[in-house]
Amino acid sequence: MKKEYGALVVGAGIGGIRSALDLAETGLKVALIDARPSLGGILAQLDHQFPSDHCGMCKMLPLTQRDQSSQYCLRKGLFHKNIDIYLHTELSNLEGDPGKFQATLSRRSTFIDSTRCVSCGLCAEVCPARVPSEFNAGLAQRTAVYLPVPHNIPNHYVVDLDNCQRCWRCYEACPTKAIDFKFEQRKDFHIVVATPDEQLAQDFPLWFKDENFPVHPTSSGEDALKLLAEGLDCGLMLLDLDLPQAEAERTLRRALELRPNLAVVLLAAPGKERDKDGGKDKVAAALLKLGAREVLAKPLRQAQAVPWLDKLFMRLVSDESFSIEVGAVILAAGFECYDPAASPGGCADLLLYGSHPGVLTSLEFERLASPTGPSQGLLTRPGDGKPLRRIAWLQCVGSRDVKKNADLCSSFCCMVSIKQALLAKRRSHDEAETTIFYMDMRTNGRDYQRYRDEAENEAGVRFVPARPHTILPGPDGDILVQYFDYAGELREEVFDALVLAVGARPPKSMERLAQAAGIEVNDSGFCATKYLSPNRTSRLGVFAAGAFGEPTDIRGSLIQAGAAAMGASRMIRVYHGPRDETPEAEPEYTDVSRQVPRVLMALCTSCPTLERNVDSELLHQRMATLPGVVKVVDVQRACTREGWEALRQEAELAAPNRVLIGACLPYVHVPRLRELGEALKLNPALMDVVDIHTASFSGRDTSFGGHAACLASCATGAGACDCGEGARTNEMGSLLAMAAAKLLGADPSTLPQATPVSPQALVVGGGLAGMTAAMGIADQGFKVVLVEEAEHLGGQAMNLRYTLEGDDPVRFMEDLVEQVEKNPNIRVLKDSRVVLSRGKAGRFVTVVATGEGMAHTLHHGATILATGGHEAKVYEYGNRVRKCVLTQLELEQRLAAGSVDASSLSGVAMIQCWRSREESRNYCSRVCCQGALKNILMLKKRNPGLPVYVFYRDIMTTGFAEHYYTEARRSGAIFIRYTPDSRPQVDFKDDKPVITALDPVLGAQIELHPDLLVLSSGVEPGDAAEIADLFGVGLTSDGFFQEAESKWRPVDFLKHGIFACGLALGPATMRDSLLSAKAAAQRVVRILSEKQLSCGNVVAEVRDTLCSRCGRCISVCPYGARALDLDRDKIVVDELLCQGCGSCMAACPNSATVLRGFHDEQVMAVIDAALAVQPSAAARL
Amino acid sequence: MKNMHTPIAFTPAPLVFQDEALAEIQSMVRACMQCGTCTASCPNSFAMDLAPRQMWRMLLFGLKQEVLESRTFWLCSSCYSCTLRCPRGLPLTAAMAALKRLAAAEGDAVNRKKALFYQEFMQNVEQNGRIQEMGFMCHYFLAMHDPLLPLEYGPLGLKLLAKGKLHLGDSTQRGRLGPLFAKVRSMEEAS
């Protein structure tokens, strides 16, 4: 039967993971696929992320009901009970309509049985092939059988068949027989060859004799078809195009009728013959359309044909294609880094990329700086190992370049380069000199400008506004960089390394994916989205997440992914109606806290290695003597249904209150433990699975073949090393004893009462973000109360008249207001303010006062704060005093209203970043550059000859907005850079502005006499201090809301259940606000879709009698779960917020704070068990 | 329309955006983002008085006089490096050539003199069907009215002569390119 899922997420990078988690947490089943053999996308290769310069990916993991998913490093793996992950899998077809799509997925085989592979690395050791490693960005080599990511869990080897040399040494070396090259099936794989070429017909059977393929040469299509009709179970047909065209075509059609799954490969000679009649190509193309698989070039030679056909056979019998039914699809296929060596249009030759070892891409530098990289994190030059002390970064390689079809800004490279420069400084103990060559430093996030300022002023990173063109090999393997500085001097500098900040390109498979999913792509090759519906693709029910729709950084990707999840979730609920109101019954567990611990230990004996390498009798004896262990049983094949059933029966007989299972692959058993728990009425927290398989097999080092030699000698029985049977039995004994000790000490008391959820949301702020969020929640069937301070809905976005992309924001806002007011699930309270709020996630009580003096008491489960912002008020330069000085917003409104006539103007000057990006408003407002560009283009449209001069510091047109920057320049506007040290001076003469400024390109003062001076004043947050105080959430120094984590939890507050979006969260365009609002709405739906919220098994508790109220634990808690309750004089822990990280336990000087499941005694007992002298080992000594 | 800006360091420019000939060249380089790739790529930039980037900028500011007074565009040897490398894809070499034409047509005596080399070159080609170095240089010296000029070129001429790079008269191709030039002229007149 076809599997059914709520949603299909294509791409398992961080965007895909975020979307999948957002949906899975609300109870939808999600299929998460990725074409790569590993999870995590590009982030698996990156170790450090700005601004914290740490990873932090795990912060994406669910905070509530967290026992449903894995709770460890997300870079290593992801397990969630509602997410099925298919790797090495691509979407090959998508049919149907929203709510009921039929998705066809094709999975490429890795040829390694993941249930058998123990990642010993013996296969890689014997593999003779060497190809550049993708994981290390080509800086190191890998074998053809390899680990895609060295730190994954589970981490299984995969075979890269394309680079396989078919020596089969890995197959022979594999001790668990995990590698399957389908040797057995070859003799049943019949190959029919239809060729008039007699020589070929003769050669073929001989060539494939060694491979055991039965070959049936025939001289015509008729004969071939006859064989098929006679019932020959043929796997492959080779069809020679030297047969008459009609015959070839008929044979193909008929063969596919007889065997729809038959692979037909055409044989055609390329070259002259083709040129002569041009017919073969056409014929081949026509036949390919009819269903032929591919074309093989004649003449065939044994050395090529045999491996080719053998690999084709392995693909045919190993790869699989399957269909699933999904309600909605999210595309999160991410992006590809620009490859300077790519042709055509690459710039490798000019930049010495590939020919000089010191020229690296930013991804390569990232790998170089990574401890798991080729140099173990030492910053040394790949070629000669010279420590990197003078490093330059070159921005915009492959971005902002119309010649490379990249009229776009990749958005993340500027910040990445600053981060890398800081990293280089830190790694070299401040010895490294770092220089960033840039055109515009795009620090357009809320906190990014300060990050740059710190890098420049405190860390000493040098920023040079120039685009070096000439890169030459320098002395001693160094690199000579020549550039023209702004003063017009030609400068030469020598560097140890040059890092090319490569930009984003659409994923390589974009064309295929777009075709399979039926979506449109834009001019740059990315997924086409509309400005005012940025999470949607051109096909209804298919959404774009992450950087798939527009290049963006991690924060942007996650917000976009959240918005896509919201869209998908809404779509699924719209088409499927409200979700089945039969939630899974909460399992009830017997309270065993007053019982003596009785441990049942079950050992899986299915794996042959276990029997061979372990003295199981001795193990049994030893385990039975452990304290608390009542019974040790053997279970055959615990991984199967039957095995598990046997285990259950044993457990029912023994009636234990702790269960310890020794098996392989612990993560596979997690969902089963839950089932077993239900059957035994025993809390799964009192059960554990220990991996004894790996231990049984390879001793200690399981990561990368370290033990292989030793193992080989043991396997032959010749070795006298310490990994023999006795040692392995000991190790396994230790592992089991440790786990038993841990279980013995586990706290069996029941969890705190779950909080019931009030199924209603409160949205504070009725602007674009607030209304969008309210709609997002209401559309999914939950009640929303929308509180707006003003008398009308709409907020700031009502002031906009047109957008850069040519949308009509007025109409959009009118529609949105109407929809909100008519929505039966939304209750709008205008002219109202929140006066009081109490409670926690799931259960807030808030009092709202209306203008008429009424007070409403609301019970709600979650809250969104979207209090917005406004255009900053600037009173300088004659603004608000003189008619000839306007802000960008005023100009937009007057142009729309017609009160400014572009044709009567003789000149317009604009000043960007006016009082922005310097203290006290040291952030980029994001909207001003785009606002200026849209006004320029409007002015130029109405009066093409109008001189427009723009004074700017850095133009921040990230993503596709870059295109409009190019357009503005092309239309004739002149952009003049200024620095905070040399600002343009404004005077007034005859009531007209006179601007004097330095043009850095000319190195001369210029004086302008425009009619209009337009100031980009930027945005400021609304006064949110009171709201922040009421809800107990934080503000940044600029007055924006402080989210929990700027990258990984971009719309969450530290306080659970409260979310922020729109302008109040940080400067945002309409698109940004829409996205963050939708992402926040999905976070709210996540809480509301739960009947009650319960905490995890591992949470912190405080022993009040020991606590000195020093408060250290409060400041170290990364989740803000702890607070000092002054009334009760106690440290209190919010169980929902506490994620059991243990920071508080480490910080507490009195051991007053304890972690459930990690008590001191328990941990000590585990250590004791690990160190205990093993009886057998002692005997041997 | 009144000119709105007065660069202090330069003499006031003529009316911006009204000079059609200039506007055409301006439109070629409008999308310039002053990255300086052209300047860095230019093999002759060391000898230029204005860096190409500065010259484009002045052109956009409408400082026609200042641009025409510079020798930058005359020094362009049409190697097309800048055009090839400009990230904005601007036709910079074509803009340089357009400036040469503009200077020859509208420029002062100095510019007209600089254009003489090109004029004599083309005339020689038209006449002989290919360049004949000796005749070309003789005509050029005469046109320049500078008796010292031949002496300046003397050493170079001897060197070229020694290597057999200077061709004496050869009339085999004479007039062969006449129709081509006539066609171009008629096309120019028509446009």
Write a concise keyword list for the protein shown above.
heterodimer; A: 1181 residues; alpha/beta; FAD/NAD(P)-binding domain; Rossmann fold; 8 domains; seven-stranded mixed β-sheet; five-stranded parallel β-sheet; 33 helices; globular; B: 191 residues; mainly alpha; Fumarate Reductase Iron-sulfur Protein, Chain B, domain 2; 2 domains; 0% strand; disordered N terminus
The number of distinct structural domains of chain A comes to 8
How big is the Rg of chain B? 19 Å
Low-confidence stretches of chain B: 1-17
Oligomer: heterodimer
Question: How many domain modules of chain B?
Answer: 2
Q: How would you sum up the major sheet of chain B?
A: none
Strand fraction band of chain A? 15-25%
CATH hierarchy, class of the largest domain in chain A: Alpha Beta
Q: What is the 3D shape of chain A? A: globular
Helix content of chain A: 25-40%
Order of helices and strands of chain B: HHHHHHHHHH
Report the CATH topology name of the largest domain in chain B.
Answer: Fumarate Reductase Iron-sulfur Protein, Chain B, domain 2
Number of helical segments of chain A?
A: 33
- The appropriate CATH architecture of the largest domain in chain B is Orthogonal Bundle
Could you name the CATH topology of the largest domain in chain A? FAD/NAD(P)-binding domain
Structural class of chain A: alpha/beta
What is the approximate shape of chain B?
globular
What do these coordinates show?
The complex is a heterodimer of chains A (1181) and B (191). With 1181 residues, chain A is an alpha/beta fold. Chain A has 8 domains: 3-107 and 326-335 and 507-576, FAD/NAD(P)-binding domain, CATH 3.50.50; 122-173, no CATH class; 184-301, Response regulator (Rossmann fold); 338-502, FAD/NAD(P)-binding domain (3-Layer(bba) Sandwich); 599-744, no CATH class; 755-870 and 1021-1093, FAD/NAD(P)-binding domain, CATH 3.50.50; 873-1017, FAD/NAD(P)-binding domain (3-Layer(bba) Sandwich); 1100-1155, Alpha-Beta Plaits (2-Layer Sandwich), CATH 3.30.70. Helix content of chain A is 30%, strand content 22%. Chain A is globular, with a radius of gyration of 33 Å. The model of chain A is unreliable at 699-722 and 1177-1181 (pLDDT under 50). Chain B has 2 domains: 7-107, Orthogonal Bundle (Fumarate Reductase Iron-sulfur Protein, Chain B, domain 2), CATH 1.10.1060; 108-191, no CATH class. Mean pLDDT of chain B is 83; it is low at 1-17. In chain B, helix 1 (20-29) packs antiparallel against helix 6, helix 6 (92-106) packs across helix 7 and helix 7 (109-128) packs antiparallel against helix 8 (133-144).
